[in-house]
Specification:
Blueprint: H1 15-30, H2 46-59
Length: 70
């Protein structure tokens, strides 16, 4: 993990978050030079997504990519 951002506690994850973790694991396996900041669950809430995105931008100065899916 990169930075100090926290992801939701185990047991609160949705199937979508688990799918994103699978995507992350695939990319990290294929491209080990990638550093993942984590998978963040917003439950489709635009305001929550915006807050998490802003927190990532504020805390991870060398951030190159944010991947968002619905």
């Amino acid at each position: 993990m990169h930075g100090s951002l926290e992801t939701p506690a185990s047991g609160t994850r949705t199937a979508e978050a688990e799918g994103l973790e699978g995507c992350r694991d695939y990319l990290l396996g294929k491209y080990p030079e990638i550093i993942s900041a984590g998978v963040f669950e917003t439950e489709g809430n635009l305001s929550t997504a915006a807050k998490i995105t802003q927190k990532c931008l504020d805390e991870i100065k060398d951030l190159d990519l944010i991947y968002v899916t619905d």
